[in-house]
Structure formats: structure tokens, C-alpha cells
Amino acid sequence: MATSERLQKVMAQAGVASRRHAEELIAAGHVTVNDQVVTEMGVKVSSKDEVAVDGVPIGREGKRYLLFYKPRGVITAVTDNKKRKVVTDYFNDFSERLFPVGRLDYDTSGLLIMTNDGDLTNLLSHPKFEIDKHYVAKVQGVPNRPALQPLKEGMVIDHKKVAPAKFNILSSDRKKQTAIVELTIHQGLNHQVKNMFKAVGFPVLKLSRTGFGNLDLHGLQPGDYRELKPHELQELKRLANG
């Protein structure tokens, strides 16, 4: 007898999407099992069942891991109902169906991992895994270290506890009343970096994620990408597993 597994897990293992995004595709009616549209969670399928997304049967793909420098003005999604540019537009020539690990805001640039490994995506995105994420922000105002001290002590924003962060003031421009500040966090709350700076009185004018765990953007320009090296992937998994 063929072993049955939840539909969203099978989709993630096939490299279609992360489990969360697979659930969104199912709920939106994009998924069929044996030519029947499935919109409910909890459906189980086996190797004997034919699963398709938008009419395209899923298959077992080789795993791909890419480091992508997301430009500003690009949506971190696989589709957008407003027809805006999305990150997957940069990977149309790939036979694998790649999806982003986590999110960066539309107006935020920087490091994004693209993969078809749903299990790794879940591992890296889970709140309990404390992987450092490095950002560089241009902020309005010229802060000193005491003004930014609350970032280091932890904060409550929108009734949510924000873990302590590390910061470093890289430069200040008193004439323009702006500064460049590096911030390291390990959570992934929505708009977290922008909300943290806003809470201490220095709203973000420009933001880029420059590092994720052991990875950085060295040698890349916005819109560029490269394959992760085996030792980078191994170290990333090690960090995710604590």
C-alpha cells in the first residue's frame, strides 16, 4: 500500500513552494488531485495520485539554492495580483520552481535565498531558530548611542516583544540630518527593522539586508544571483539547527 502524506508536504518536497505557500495555493484553488480541485487542508495523497498546480503536474526536482540580491521595487512573492515585478521574474529560465525564503519589503533591497527546498525554507523561517540577519539603514536624524540604546535592550512594538538587537552607527551627516546605522536582529517580524527605528525616533529612509547567517552580498549587484556553495549550505543548515 502506498504511503499517504499531507498534500502541502508533498508539494513542498517536490519543490513547488514552502508549506505555507502551498497552503495558500490550495486555498486559492490552484491545486488539483487526480484532476479534481482541492481547496481544503488536511487532504492526503500518495505516489499513485497525480497532483498538479495550475494544470502542471508536480515532479521530484533536484534541489537548488541561490543567493539573490533583491532590488528595491520588487515584491517578495511568486505572483502579484497588481502585476508588479516579483522575485521569481528573475528566474524564468530555471526549470525548477523557485520560491523565496522569508520576505523583504517592496522598498527594501538585499539578500534573499531562493530555493525549491520546502523543508529548508520551513527550517530557516521558523521563529525558534535564531539566525542573525544584518541590515544597513539610512535613517532620518543623527542619533547617538544612548538614543539607540532601546534597540539593544529589547522593545515592545504593537504589543509584540522584540528581542534585543545589535547596532553600530556607521556614519552621520549633520547637514542633511541623516545617518547610516547597521542593525543585527534574529527575529523576522513584519516590518521589524523599520518599526524599531521608528520607535526610537529615527524613521528609515532606505533599507537593505546585507547578511543572513553566514551569507553576504559580496560581489553581487541588485538583480544578481549565484548558487550557494556546498560549505555555505552546510553552515547555514548548522546555524538553523542551533
From TrEMBL:
GO MF annotation terms: RNA binding; rRNA pseudouridine synthase activity
GO BP terms: enzyme-directed rRNA pseudouridine synthesis
The UniProt record lists the keyword Protease: no
A single cellular component GO annotation: cytosol
Source organism superkingdom: Bacteria
Enzyme Commission number(s) from the entry: 5.4.99.-
UniProt entry keywords in alphabetical sequence: Isomerase, RNA-binding
Keyword Isomerase: yes
Gene3D superfamilies: Alpha-L RNA-binding motif (3.30.70.1560), Pseudouridine synthase I, catalytic domain, N-terminal subdomain (3.30.70.580), RNA-binding S4 domain (3.10.290.10)
Residue span(s) of domain RNA-binding S4: 5-68
Protein family membership: Belongs to the pseudouridine synthase RsuA family.
Protein name (database record): Pseudouridine synthase
Native source species: Lacticaseibacillus brantae DSM 23927
Classification of source organism: Bacteria, Bacillati, Bacillota, Bacilli, Lactobacillales
